[in-house]
Structure formats: C-alpha cells, structure tokens
Amino acid sequence: MAAQLLSTSVHDTVPGQYVRPESQRPRLGEVVAGARIPVVDLACPDRAALVSAVGGACRSHGFFQVLNHGIDAGLIAAVMAVAREFFRLPPEEKAKLYSDDPARKIRLSTSFNVRKETVHNWRDYLRLHCHPLDQFVPDWPSNPPDFKETMSTYCKEVRALGFRLYEAISESLGLEAGYMGNTMGEQEQHMAVNFYPPCPSPELTYGLPAHTDPNALTILLMDEEVAGLQVLNGGKWVAVNPQPGALVVNIGDQLQALSNGEYRSVWHRAVVNSDRERVSVASFLCPCSDVELGPARKLVTEETPAVYRNYTYDEYYKKFWSRNLDQEHCLELFRT
Ligand code: OGA
Ligand code: NI
C-alpha cells in the first residue's frame, strides 16, 4: 500500500514494525570513522598501475571510489536534485507508482521487500529498469518534468563507466579486457533512487540492513553532505565518506563468483540519522537472465578448484528476492 511510504509523512517516533531486536541494531558508536577507502584515479596514464589499484581494492575491500570518472559534475548535481524533487511530490502522485512486486520494472516502493521481511527499513526507493533506455523511459515518471531527460543521460554515462571498469577488473584478474563485458551479454541496468527520511531514533533501525548486491557491479552516487553508507571491512563496520566528486563502486555477487571468490562482494548497509534526509542513486549492472554464470574458466585450476557451480542469473535473482536481506550471503547457496 502506498500509505506505507515514509516520504509522505513526518515521523515523531519510530513505529514498532521498524524497530530491530536489540541484538540486530546498528550500534552506531562502534562504527569506524575516517578509515581510508581505496581510491582509483581513472585518469591515471599508467594502465598497469590503474589495473593494479583496481585489483588490490577488489581483493581487500570489494569496493573503491573512482575519481576522474568522466561524468560531468553538473549532471551529477542535476541527478541529485531531480531525485530529491521526486520524493517531494504529493502523496497522490507517488501512489500511482507504488508497488511491492519485485518483478515490476518501474516501481516506487519502501523498505526492501515488504512482502517477505519481518522488520521494515527506513527507506523509500524508486526502482527503474534502464536498458535499453527507449524501451523503459516512456514509462518512467514524467514528474518532475526533467526527470526522464536527466536520468536517462546519467544512465548512459554510468553504463559506459561500468564497462570501462569491467575492462580494468577483467585485466586485474589476468583475463582479457573484454571478458566481463562479453560473458555477461547485453546486460540489464537497473537504478535505485534511494530516499532515507530523517529518523527520530537511528539507533533502532536501518535504511538498508547489511546485504551484498546480487548483481555484477554497482556504481553509487551519494549525498556529499549526509553520510550513511557503511561497509564491513576486517570484521568492523566502516563509514564511507567519499571524496568530493567521487563515485563509489562495489563488486556484486556475480563478480565474486566470476573471480572464483578472489574478489569480494562486500557486505554493506545504510544507516539513517535524525536531522537530515539522505538521497543516493545506485546503478546496477546485471548480467542477462539466461547467461550461464560462474567462475571464469581460466581461474579454475587444480590448486584453485571452482568454488561456485554454474547457474543462470535468472535462477540467482529469483533466489535473492525470495529471501530476506539479512540472511547469509546468497552466493553460499551456489557453492560447489
Ligand atoms: C543499495 C545500497 C546504499 C546507500 O541500494 O543497494 O546499498 O548508501 N545503497 O544508499
Ligand atoms: Ni547495496
């Protein structure tokens, strides 16, 4: 029900359905602040150094920030502005787009998977399929008026960036540059525009609880002023505060499988705060549903046998959405 959207009302207290049991709370006081997050400068003229920086970050953290990514700062500001404006639309306008069916290709929803979860999360999100653009854009929101144009320009650029990153990631594994782009087919692209309203008791709930992304690669555009993303590193939750102008990249489950477990699909979560709303725009590159996935053949040797079996993305994605977020890594279900 659209009435469940958080962004359509103001909250003085956290309703019971959002309150985590004591043992599952975020323990914000224990989060590591100011940790160094790997940075990759895409303008680096030394290809070998760039590839090695990417490989090191994928191995140690499963995520990194990219600088000099080529997406214009003005466009990024426009994307954030239109995202904020969207969530300020009147309730009746938003109700038209509401759905809790994960199979819908354009939907405004709340929390994560309201049909499956027992405790809700302090987030509303607009989830859009984005590729091929001309197939989906006509059905995207036509309000705010510049939504379609701004978001479709961004989608094209972020996709191109994703494919550039695939090349560097492939090379860093000793695979040919085109390996990922080629094996995952004409990939789907999804976008989640996340809106985390101010929350009266951030200690009791999450914007998004710990999860790994089920797709191949995620490129995250974050609010520069309001922090909230945290990643698990060395057993500790670490706050991610990217450098100005940077985008955050994280390895998803499919690249962990493809790398035969060498690269990590990082556990991450979003926490909320009591003062300010927070917006993020996640772009997900997803393999075609019928492509067979699994460890790259070249990475499977006698010493490093296949850690995961082969499967289709369709099988994987259905499994992911049939579960709740805060369970074990979905890839565990695909071990050999
Ligand atoms: C996601 C995600 C983090 C954030 O949408 O999968 O992890 O900071 N978002 O919004
Ligand atoms: Ni995520």
Automatic annotation (TrEMBL):
<keyword id="KW-0479">Metal-binding</keyword>
<feature type="domain" description="Fe2OG dioxygenase">
    <location>
        <begin position="187"/>
        <end position="287"/>
    </location>
</feature>
<keyword id="KW-0223">Dioxygenase</keyword>
<protein>
    <recommendedName>
        <fullName>Fe2OG dioxygenase domain-containing protein</fullName>
    </recommendedName>
</protein>
<dbReference type="GO" id="GO:0051213">
    <property type="term" value="F:dioxygenase activity"/>
</dbReference>
<dbReference type="InterPro" id="IPR026992">
    <property type="entry name" value="DIOX_N"/>
</dbReference>
<keyword id="KW-0560">Oxidoreductase</keyword>
<dbReference type="InterPro" id="IPR005123">
    <property type="entry name" value="Oxoglu/Fe-dep_dioxygenase_dom"/>
</dbReference>
<dbReference type="InterPro" id="IPR050295">
    <property type="entry name" value="Plant_2OG-oxidoreductases"/>
</dbReference>
<comment type="similarity">
    <text>Belongs to the iron/ascorbate-dependent oxidoreductase family.</text>
</comment>
<dbReference type="GO" id="GO:0002229">
    <property type="term" value="P:defense response to oomycetes"/>
</dbReference>
<dbReference type="GO" id="GO:0046872">
    <property type="term" value="F:metal ion binding"/>
</dbReference>
<dbReference type="Pfam" id="PF03171">
    <property type="entry name" value="2OG-FeII_Oxy"/>
</dbReference>
<dbReference type="Pfam" id="PF14226">
    <property type="entry name" value="DIOX_N"/>
</dbReference>
<keyword id="KW-0408">Iron</keyword>
<dbReference type="InterPro" id="IPR027443">
    <property type="entry name" value="IPNS-like_sf"/>
</dbReference>
<dbReference type="InterPro" id="IPR044861">
    <property type="entry name" value="IPNS-like_FE2OG_OXY"/>
</dbReference>
